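**User:** Once you have settled down, spend some time on the protein underneath, comparing sequence with structure tokens, and judge whether sequence predicts the tokens.
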Amino acid sequence: MCCITPKIRNLRLPSRDGVEMVRVMSKSLKRVRAALEAAGVEAQVLEMPGETRTAADAAREANCEIDQIAKSIIFRGETTGHCVLFITAGGNQVDPEKASALAKEPLGRADAAFVREKTGFAIGGVAPIAHKTAPVVFFDPRLLEFTTVFGAAGTPRHIFSIESKDLQRLSGGSLQNFTL
């Protein structure tokens, strides 16, 4: 089961020894929430009891099909150094040759430091929206076969549900075939 994360900046936790504790919402999660609210889309940010680092984990936690998970796959442009984002259905894999052809340059693996620098997110919680630096974005048509999809919300335990067409519009992703 999941619960809707309340729209608050800090979460007050039960105290031990009479001292109230406050858990501060992560900056990454705040950025995703703000982007969703600013866009005026109907989306729910969900805090899951288990981790959602992989598409399989997220699908299990959300109790949905794996292809309803909108994976954020980041590559580094070998020529330009640009961040290139492929938002793909959870069960699909990005074809490196198709991806490079779409990006019009060879693409390389994006290491954790590059991902954090360009997106502001750590691997395992990279959202398809609200990146620090706007990436070049491509969107998997398979996701549009579902009314509702789920994307990472900036942490390994938060996801958000959104209509697939709204996610494509909000991400600015070009609808392309780039999977194996």
User: Anything to note?
Assistant: The domain at 3-13+21-175 is CATH 3.90.960.10 (YbaK protein). The chain has a mean pLDDT of 90. The helical segments are 27-39, 55-62, 96-103, 112-119, 164-171.
